[in-house]
Specification:
Length: 66
């Protein structure tokens, strides 16, 4: 099972703050993500393409436990 974390371009806290303010969430840069990431991936896609107009927020695979 893969382990994922949420991050921002250049680990810029401003992007994470903007994302959290836009969606009323409380993610932290480097936070480990669990469960179904489908909704979060959709939100990130919309934010990057409709708000930031570039790759501001992303989910990265940091380890594969298998």
């Amino acid at each position: 099972m893969a382990i994922y974390k949420i991050t921002t371009d250049g680990e810029d806290q401003g992007w994470m703050d903007a994302f959290n303010n836009h969606y009323d969430t409380h993610y932290k840069i480097g936070e480990v993500l669990t469960g179904d990431l489908t909704e979060l991936q959709e939100r990130i896609f919309y934010f990057n393409n409709g708000v930031a107009l570039g790759p501001a927020v992303s989910i990265v695979e940091v380890q594969d436990e298998d």
